[in-house]
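Hey,
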Amino acid sequence: WTHEGSSDSATAGFDATTAKAVYEEYRAKVLAINPQPSLYVEIHGTWGSRDSGDIQAATVGITLAEALRLKGLYEQIRDSQLLNSPRVTRHPLLIEPADKMQLTASCAKKIGIFRDFAKVLHMELPEEMRMSSAWETYSIILADLLRQTVALDGAK
């Protein structure tokens, strides 16, 4: 059990046995809620040098056409919500497989929970979005994006 970038000080003193037990409990609870969702979504935040200012969406099972559709839908919702908010930063969405990204959730894809689902959308939100007055607006934008995505796919 390792962590992406495990050579940094964030994993010093890391107890792999405990981490695996916590992961297995988390996985069991997620699968108990819905063992076969049409789309599994995780949302996290970036920080420091890993924070590009973009929303980065790693995916599993998402086609190029679906990624481009999600990106277009996001831009439409974002631009509509920010129409009267000129001071709020317009954060771009980078999404696999349409875009090259820094954060690809490779560990979750190789050894983690993403292996359990046919389709995954893993979003990393920039710190400026989460730690500013823009958060309320972007919460609405992301909720609308996910609501419409689920409706389009007929997801459960």
